[in-house]
Every structure is written in C-alpha cells, then in structure tokens.
C-alpha cells in the first residue's frame, strides 16, 4: 500500500509539472501564430519529460556540450518551444555551452564560450539587419521575423534577469520587467545592446523598484577580466546617455565605483573604472560603507592579481592623491606607539 501511495504521489507531481508546461504552451498559442508539426512534437516531448531540457550532450554535439535549449536557439526554434523550456529552467537562458571544467580543454577550438543570448542573435542578426532595411514586396515577412527575434531575445533576458517567464504586472501585481535592466545584467551581443539602448532610452535614468539603475546592474554583473572590454563598452554607453548615474548610490549606499573596484575588480584602462571615476570625481574621495575604504584602497586589494589591477590602483591614487593621508585613527595609533622623546637620546 505504501509503495502504491508513493507511486501515486510521484504520478501526481509529474502530472502537475506537465500541466504547467501545457498551460504555458496554451498561453502563447494565440499570439505566436499557427503551430507546425515539428514545434508540436517538441512541445509534446517537453511535456513528457521536462527534466530533459537541461541535459547536456556527453560526447560533444558539434564540438560543444549543449543542452536541448542551446540546440533550440541554434536552430531558431519557435518562441513557444523556448518559453516551455525556460518555464522549467529559467537559468538555461545564460548557461554557456561548456562547463567551467571544459573551457580550458575546448578553448583552442572556440573563439569564445557563448551563452544562448549570443547564439540566438548571432544566428539571426543578418536576417534582422536585412529586415530593418528591406523595402521590397516582402517587407511584411521581414517585419514578422524582426518582431519574432525581438520577442525571443526579450524572453531570454526576462528569464535571466527575473528568474521566471511567468511574471505579469496586470495579473499578479509584480513589478514590470525592464528590458534594459535585463540586457545590462548579462552579457549580450554589442549590436543588440546598442539597439536596446536606442529603443529604451527612457529607462537609462529610471530606477526600478529596488532603486537601481541599469548602470548598477551592468557593474555588479560584470564577469571579470575576460570580459572587461565589453563591460567598458556598456558602462561608457550608459554614462554617455546618463552621466549623473555615476553619482547614484545603490540600496546599500554604495556608488558604482565602489562595486566596480571592490567587488568585481574592474580595471582602469579596460574595465570602465576610468569612466566611472571621471564621471563622478567625488566618488574617489567617498568611503565605501561596506569596506570602509576609498576606491584606491579597494583596488589595492586586487593589485596582486595583475598589472592591470596595479595600474588601476595607481591611477585612482593619482586622481585623488590627498586620500593617501593617514586617517585620524592611524595617527593616534602612531602617537601611542611612538617611544617617549627622552628614549631617543
């Protein structure tokens, strides 16, 4: 009896999971157009085995270790297929093709480790660009492809930034998803980010429900030395449109420069630190409420890692040399530890 009850519980759980996928598929069927046979088949497979969407190939599919979601993005799968997969595992939106253990082994065979956002855009951007400039009799068809690509990219960004694809302000009272915040939270193709900046310029200086600007998300989600040139591009683009963003503190009272040099370890010449420092010079003299240090001292912690970090510390110090003066507490310690004058003779 207990075995039969356990089987019943598992069956019910699987049924609930499948019903969730079916409901997700039904919600999108109205706006995504007619469903072809291959799309219907893939959705049935997802419904039958939801856990399969995150299983990577073991032997290296086309020299990469991919999940079905990676392959779906590469094949430009229907929006409903992508949404059904992300409704099960939203993190699939930004998972790279290879795991960290595989990167060094496969590095010689890949120019970069792409995430699904980059793959989806790379495989479609030529079509997208042609759709925007095409003025032939097929303009309506290209416009549909233009819209479909935008919707897919927005879907992946929502899953990555919000952790779900089921948010709805009208029905659930949840805060709205800001596309620019999502684009600044993960690594996107540069031309796509430039497009989002252009189409959503009103969001550049707009705080979300947490009091954060796109610049805050761009800085705190930077991926380290290997992508600092990209981070510099994002920071520079945001500050060019909204210079005052460099002076806006986050929910912890920290400036973007504090997070950039203290938490992420961005650098002066390639990581956007120069842009942040010159965008709001008072930040150079502002103590980080978390570490209690000024930016040049925050950067000094990372100076042992590379010449770029050492150079960053020097540049921050040269930009505010007066901050090298000892604090009052340090001065008091020096006075207490100094021997009496009589002992010096």
Automatic annotation (TrEMBL):
SUPFAM superfamilies: Ankyrin repeat (SSF48403)
Lineage summary: Eukaryota, Sar, Stramenopiles, Ochrophyta, Bacillariophyta
Biased composition (Basic and acidic residues): 15-26
Biased composition (Polar residues): 1-13
Protein name stated in the entry: ANK_REP_REGION domain-containing protein
InterPro entries given in the database record: Ankyrin_rpt-contain_sf (IPR036770)
Disordered: annotated span: 1-35
């Amino acid at each position: 009896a207990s075995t039969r009850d356990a089987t019943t519980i598992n069956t019910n759980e699987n049924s609930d999971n499948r019903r969730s996928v079916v409901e997700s598929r039904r919600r999108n069927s109205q706006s995504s157009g007619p469903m072809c046979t291959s799309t219907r088949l893939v959705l049935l497979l997802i419904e039958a085995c939801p856990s399969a969407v995150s299983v990577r190939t073991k032997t290296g599919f086309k020299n990469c270790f991919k999940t079905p979601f990676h392959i779906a993005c590469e094949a430009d799968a229907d929006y409903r297929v992508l949404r059904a997969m992300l409704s099960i595992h939203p993190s699939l939106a930004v998972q790279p093709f290879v795991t960290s253990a595989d990167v060094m082994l496969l590095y010689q065979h890949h120019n970069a480790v792409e995430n699904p956002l980059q793959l989806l855009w790379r495989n479609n951007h030529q079509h997208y660009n042609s759709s925007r400039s095409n003025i032939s009799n097929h303009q309506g068809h290209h416009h549909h492809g233009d819209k479909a690509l935008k919707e897919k990219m927005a879907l992946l960004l929502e899953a990555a930034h919000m952790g779900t694809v089921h948010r709805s302000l009208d029905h659930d009272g949840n805060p709205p998803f800001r596309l620019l915040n999502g684009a600044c939270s993960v690594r996107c193709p540069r031309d796509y980010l430039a497009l989002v900046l252009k189409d959503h310029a009103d969001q550049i200086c707009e705080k979300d429900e947490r009091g954060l600007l796109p610049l805050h998300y761009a800085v705190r989600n930077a991926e380290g030395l290997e992508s600092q040139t990209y981070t510099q591009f994002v920071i520079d683009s945001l500050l060019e449109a909204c210079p005052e963003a460099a002076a806006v503190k986050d929910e912890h009272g920290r400036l973007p420069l504090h997070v950039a040099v203290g938490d992420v370890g961005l650098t002066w010449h390639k990581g956007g630190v120069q842009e942040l420092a010159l965008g709001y010079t008072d930040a150079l003299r502002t103590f980080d409420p978390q570490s209690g240090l000024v930016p040049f001292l925050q950067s000094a912690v990372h100076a042992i890692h590379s010449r770029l970090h050492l150079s960053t510390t020097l540049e921050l110090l040269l930009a505010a040399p007066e901050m090298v003066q000892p604090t009052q507490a340090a001065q008091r310690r020096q006075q207490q530890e100094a021997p009496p004058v009589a002992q010096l003779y």
